[in-house]
Design goal:
This protein is α/β, with parallel strands linked by helices. It contains 11 helices and 8 strands. A 4-stranded parallel beta sheet has the order 1-3-5-8, with helices on both faces. Helix 5 packs across helix 6 and helix 9 runs antiparallel to helix 10. The protein is globular and about 60 Å long. The two termini are about 25 Å apart. Belongs to the enoyl-CoA hydratase/isomerase family.
């Protein structure tokens, strides 16, 4: 995953990334606890730090990311989904940060991302109880953007994610990246400081050929042809 992150990070032609499992009924089931049990304390700490760093790389990918969750996304699996910008789940998906029930705590960003996605009190309840919820409940709580009825092919979340991706794709890749960076940086600051972040990324986007293409296509009443530069 780290290798893929490095490959796609610099490709300005990529407008959106969808994360979807090819394993039927499982998005990501989290860590292999049998393997973890055989590790020394030092090995565990190193492993979890590396996992967190990998998920931070996903969080920091410059283009929008969508997690398509068909089935189980527990522990590190939900932490992986939380690292994405948008989450789509099948109504029958199973999501939860279950670590406290295994004598652990979420260690790949879960204690930090979930309380920033939903109300901290609700995040605490889910983490303290190790509760597993379905996709519909996750939508009601605001953990996922969309919950969709599962289909016969068991890929309803993926189909919805592709639908969202197709809405994003026509837009300018660099503008999308600048918008994402402005949001991610700005939400951690006061709104006044956030305005300065917005200005910074607006100015980064101004010299791009895509910005000129966007205005020109509007004037000429045609669809823009963005090239990512």
């Amino acid at each position: 995953m780290k290798e893929v992150n490095a490959l796609i990070r610099e490709d300005t032609r990529i407008s959106v990334v969808v994360l979807h499992s090819l394993v039927r009924g499982i998005f990501c089931a989290g860590a292999n606890l049998k393997e973890r049990f055989k590790m020394s304390e030092e090995e565990v700490a190193k492993f979890v730090r590396g996992l967190r760093e990998t998920f931070i790389e996903i969080e920091d990918l410059p283009m929008p990311t969508i997690a398509a969750i068909e089935g189980v996304a527990v522990g590190g699996g939900l932490e992986l989904a939380l690292a994405c910008d948008i989450r789509v789940a099948a109504e029958t998906a199973r999501l939860g940060l279950v670590e406290t029930g295994r004598g652990l705590i979420p260690g790949a960003g879960g204690t930090q991302r979930l309380p920033r996605v939903i109300h901290p009190n609700i995040a605490k309840e889910l983490i303290f109880t190790s509760r597993i919820i379905n996709g519909k409940e996750a939508k009601e709580m605001g953990i996922v953007n969309h919950a969709v009825a599962q289909n016969e092919n068991n890929n309803a979340a993926f189909e919805k994610a592709l639908e969202l991706a197709r809405e994003i794709l026509p837009n300018a890749p660099i503008a999308l990246r600048c918008a994402k960076q402005a949001i991610n940086e700005g939400v951690q600051l006061s709104i006044k400081d956030g305005y300065e972040v917005e200005q910074k990324y607006y100015e980064i986007n101004v010299p791009t050929k895509d910005r000129q293409e966007g205005m020109l296509s509007f004037i000429e009443k045609r669809k823009p042809k963005y090239k990512g530069h």
